[in-house]
Design brief:
The chain is mostly helical and about 90 residues long. The chain has helices at about 5-25, 30-50, 55-75. The protein is globular, with a radius of gyration of 14 Å.
Length: about 90
């Protein structure tokens, strides 16, 4: 299995999830809410300029960080105020 297809799937899952959550769960959508999506897409575009599998590894790392944060935020760190209320 190659890194690029796995990375592309991970990237699509993360961008789709963040965009859905931003548009669906927020009463008022602002540019600042979409900034994280734009930053992730920008990072992928920069890594896509280089030869090799940097894009795939970037996307896999993005997905890993996203899901680790999600798991920790809903279990171990659920009462930490700086994570927000989760709604």
């Amino acid at each position: 299995m190659h890194v690029l297809p796995v990375g592309a799937v991970c990237f699509g899952v993360i961008i789709g999830w963040v965009t859905y959550r931003t548009l669906r769960k927020t009463d008022k959508v602002a540019i600042s809410h979409i900034a994280s999506v734009v930053g992730a897409v920008g990072g992928a575009a920069v890594t896509g300029l280089f030869k090799g599998s940097l894009f795939g590894w970037y996307c896999i790392g993005l997905a890993a960080g996203f899901f680790v944060y999600l798991i920790l935020g809903t279990t171990v760190l659920k009462d930490v105020p700086w994570l927000g209320d989760g709604s």
